[in-house]
TrEMBL record:
It comes from Mycobacteroides salmoniphilum. Coiled coil: none annotated. Residues 145-154 have a biased composition (Polar residues). It comes from the Bacteria. This is DUF3060 domain-containing protein.
Length: 154
């Protein structure tokens, strides 16, 4: 029985091998300038790739920090606006730019070359190197450590 199956499979293979191509008679199978194009072609649409990341050109609105909470900004080269309502804000990292709208209880800045602007704060602390804090109103209690940190009214 196995012998018969092998012979049948071999004969079927020879028939398929010897068969002519299944291209229509009016379509040339060669290539080059003398070949004409088929009358109909198939176009396969590939799915488009979409990105889940937001555009960097859009300017997001301020982030709200409720009273009594602590809001932290950390990382490098971030630019953010915080709407502060008697909360604490902590900024750490390198070259961040933070604008704080409203009154803060405590503002703490640490790291290197951070720039922070705040309307008003009860206390401001700056540590690290080359950080700049500008407050617009009030007389905050200021503490500084590190090198070349500035806290000034402006």
């Amino acid at each position: 029985m196995v012998f018969f199956a092998v012979i049948t499979a071999g004969v079927a293979g020879l028939i398929f091998y010897a068969a002519k191509p299944t291209a229509p008679h009016n379509v040339p199978t060669g290539s080059g300038p003398s070949a004409t194009r088929p009358a109909r072609s198939t176009v396969v649409k590939l799915p488009t790739r979409t990105s889940a990341t937001p555009s960097t050109t859009a300017t997001p609105g301020p982030t709200y920090a409720p009273p009594g909470s602590t809001f932290s900004v950390s990382g490098t080269h971030k630019q953010i606006t915080v709407n502060c309502d008697d909360c604490s804000v902590s900024v750490s990292g390198v070259s961040n730019t933070v604008d704080i709208v409203g009154n803060c209880d405590t503002l703490t800045v640490s790291g290197v070359e951070n720039t922070v602007t705040v309307e008003a704060a009860r206390t401001i602390g700056a540590s690290g190197f080359d950080n700049k804090v500008t407050y617009h109103s009030g007389e905050p209690e200021v503490s500084k450590s590190g090198d070349n940190n500035t806290v000034e009214q402006g």
